Amino acid sequence: MNIFLRLQNIGVDRNFDDYVNSKIRLSNAVALFNILFVAIPFSVISFLYVKELIAIPILGIVSMILVWVFNKISLIYLARILSALTPLLLAALFTSNLLKGNEELPVVMFLIMIAFSIIPFLVFDIRERGYLIFSVVFNFVIFVGVEYLPFVWIEKADLDFITEGFLFELNYIVSIVLIYTIVFMLAYINYRSELKGQRLIESNQKQTQDLHESENVLKKNLEEVQKAQNEEKNRAWVTEGLGRINSLTRQYDDPAALSKEVISEIVKYVDASQGAIYLVERDEGEEETFMEMKAAFAFGRRKGVKDRVKVGEGLIGQCYLEKDMIFLTEVPDDFVKIKSGLGDAPPKNIVIMPLMTNEKIEGILEVASFQVLPDYKVDYLKKLGESLATSFSMNKINANTKKLLELSQEQEEQMRSQAEELHQNMEELQATQEEMQRKNKETEEQNQQLQQQEEELRQNMEELSAQSDEMEKQMKEMEKIQAEMKAREDILNESTIISEADLFGTITYVNDKLIEVAKYSREEMLGEPHSLFRHPDMPSQIYKLMWDTIKSGKVFRGTVKNKAKDGSVYWVDAVISPVFDADGKPKKYIGVRYVIEQEKVAQKLFDQQLERLGLMRGN
């Protein structure tokens, strides 16, 4: 079976079209069929009955072998022409010699010729119409002109061997089988073509479906990429906004001035239209808390608006009680108007946000907009809450400290004035006493009263003196504390690099020492990632270890090689610690670094660190 498969595939080349390779196989199969079932049997018949014609079937064997040879040497069209024309031509020659001098017609031979005449439809494709038409016309001419072919071998042959008996029946069956075989092969070729077409249609449908699925996957991936890009863009936007507000909080100590600058920045940054900041206040000598409007931006009057709001009164007071954001998208027309030179209109969205730190509300932020604020802008306002609350709380503490200092200075001045007044009174009393002593003892009762007043004044002087000593002691203690705090801050700024970063690693605070060492300005560093200082020699594994450590709530310490703005190198002993919120989760990171002045010492510590982590060069 293997040899028949090899004979069938002679001349097949993967570079040819599929239909060409199919026709090559068919031409090889036709050659094999003709040799086995026609040429060889007729050679035997000729040898037994008409030896004069034995050359014709032998020539058929040779021509069919040449079909294989031509296919092998890539003369595929010559091979197919040979397989399409030679069988009928040789059969016609054989038949014409049998017809000469005989009146009886060899029907079997005509049946075989009919089978051979349709071989061109088997070995040529309709796309090879030139070869097909030539072969069909040639076979037709041979078939109709069989009686006129030259007779060169015999004058008259005995037809009994092929017109009767067992051989006649066998040849008759062979001719019928030959016709059926060729017709079956034509039908099979048609079936294969239809099957191939159906498979192509199914393949195209599947490819179309796969393309649709791939297109959907690509669209989904594109949407995810765009979503990730938008989220990253929004996070950068939020980080930049927080950095700008933090920069403002460091420039102003007065809560009112800070409120004015902050509300203007917030309204413009979120593309809103109006805004106001209320700070929590309490009158001296009273326990009742209220919210007072400290600053507003483009704020028009609205129905029932007040500059002072009590706890629980209106939306501002309710926000104080609930300690949660109020988000309004359906605002009454008479609630507030946003005015411009062309007219006024009600807002579409109002956000009221508590400014809260450590569960204590320091103020309320109110923002009104024509458009509903997207989630990332609302998230920006939420993150501002704690930052602004801390700033306003520090401002209040500083303001109270300043007020107490001024009050203590004022009380000290009053005590000095009272002491001088008492001293004058004492001198006047002494003068009066001397005058009274020169008078009669009739004034003894008045003198006793004066002595009693003197005793009371003396006690008052002692109390005032004690108060003055206590105030002076407190003043000295406060000055000492302030001096110590100033000294510590100066020492830290002189010897230690300090920076703060949010949970994404974005710089939110730097001290003067970092500015001096890194050679960047404060504005160039705020809002940037700490990778700004990264030196190429630093392995990424150390940064990964650092992030894994601080994200797990632990302190990281290591030797780090950094690069300054001008390209110079500086070594630091870095300690980075997370700062936790009330729930015990990291809310930001504080980094403290000490500059290692000795290059050799720093390199040695760095190499020891790499060796400890298994990152030593060459490992």
How would you describe this protein?
- With 619 residues, this protein is of the alpha+beta class.
- The chain folds into 3 domains: 3-205, no CATH class; 239-396, Beta-Lactamase (2-Layer Sandwich); 496-613, PAS domain (Beta-Lactamase), CATH 3.30.450.20.
- Helix content is 61%, strand content 15%.
- It contains 17 helices and 13 strands.
- The chain has helices spanning 2-8, 18-49, 55-72, 76-99, 107-117, 119-123, 129-144, 160-163, 165-249, 255-269, 314-322, 375-438, 444-495, 512-518, 522-525, 540-551, 599-613, and strands spanning 274-282, 289-297, 308-310, 326-328, 338-340, 343-345, 349-357, 360-369, 496-501, 507-510, 556-563, 569-580, 586-596.
- Strands 3-2-1-8-7-4 form a 6-stranded antiparallel β-sheet. It has a 5-stranded antiparallel β-sheet with strand order 10-9-13-12-11.
- Strand 9 and strand 10 form a beta hairpin.
- The longest helix has 85 residues, at 165-249.
- The protein is rod-shaped, with a radius of gyration of 56 Å.
- The model is unreliable at 339-343 (pLDDT under 50).
